[in-house]
Amino acid sequence: MFRNRHVIATLQVFVLFGSLMVIYLFYCAEDVRKFDSKIRQPPIKHNSNVFSWMPTCQQNMSAANFTDFHSYPDTVKDFLYYQHCRHFPLLLDLPDKCGGADESAEVFLLLIIKSTPENYDRREVLRKTWAKERLHKGVWIRRIFISGTTNSGFEKDRMNKLLELEQREYNDILQWDFRDTFFNLTLKQVLFLEWMERNCPNVRFLFNGDDDVFANTDNMVEYLQDLKDTNGSKHLFTGHLIENTKPVRDQNSKYFVPVQVQKSDLYLPYCGGGGFLLSGYTALVIYTMSHSIALHPIDDVYIGMCLAKAELSPTRHMGMMMEAENVQKGVAVAA
Ligand SMILES: *[C@@H]1O[C@H](CO)[C@@H](O)[C@H](O)[C@H]1NC(C)=O
Ligand SMILES: *[C@@H]1O[C@H](CO)[C@@H](O)[C@H](O)[C@H]1NC(C)=O
Ligand SMILES: *[C@@H]1O[C@H](CO)[C@@H](O)[C@H](O)[C@H]1NC(C)=O
Ligand SMILES: *[C@@H]1O[C@H](CO)[C@@H](O)[C@H](O)[C@H]1NC(C)=O
User: Fold this and answer.
1) Residue of the nearest CA to atom 9 in ligand 1?
2) Strands 107-114 and 205-210, how do they pair?
3) Residue nearest to atom 2 of ligand 2 (CA)
């Protein structure tokens, strides 16, 4: 047992210093392999929904018929080819995170943090700081990192293996087998909501954010406890409100969105994806709306579209500010 723990601890220290090559060499060392089968923990209580196989979603070749398609950046082409794909195998599950669907009302604030597999050091800081799982003012705060996969082949397997070790240690990662890229963040968000509906439907509130933000979660709990509705059964969606912006049509921008993706020249109001706070009720409404809205490459814009379809509004919370880069997803429309 001691040696196993030592292996895990050492791996993490190496990841922390970014020496991925060293981890690989270390991980493949003969004695580590021998212990690999023993580090497995006892099976978890609830049935896990981890699938090992699922038919792969086919590329939509017709997307390329559009006039300007061939001039688009590869990321946009890729988005269009796979925009319709919404189901991917779950690689790491957390069936007991909320104590099961029926008990999930016990979770007052669920922190959902988007993180790519290689961001181990960020997760490590968050676990010790604002995203620490704890009882605050008599209510539970729980944490989940949501992730896809990076690289391919051998490199991908190696990264997944590391994530699996991290999961054994912390039990706080949901991972699906899709490429964790900027334009797949909407997919990640929708996959999470689908998971939530099944595993944590009665969670009261959620904070949804990135792994590079700082969030004062103590204050959030106190803010939520002062609301009229403290059980999360009414609409709440608040954060850094962005209104009157239009899609970026400049192909050189990271946020370029062609007319093929969005015809309308105005984004509906949305809250910056760096961090927003919502009720469990609103999260499930967004998920329901997502069934009938094609995925949009920009995740927070997409959530704004889902809210609008449900005739719910995002609201501004002064306590939530984003850095400039995060706000520039759209071009401000001159008033
Ligand atoms: C669009 O692409 C598909 C598949 O590549 C092709 O079969 C179809 O004829 C194309 N449609 C038009 C209108 O060009
Ligand atoms: C494939 O792309 C075409 C053109 O954008 C679109 O009309 C069609 O609905 C897409 N098919 C699927 C399965 O999403
Ligand atoms: C999203 O993930 C799927 C599955 O891995 C991949 O085929 C697709 O290219 C990705 N899309 C983008 C825009 O990266
Ligand atoms: C939430 O509170 C409302 C009243 O504020 C109540 O009607 C409802 O039943 C409560 N829901 C749950 C799940 O406790």
Assistant:
1) 62
2) parallel
3) 63
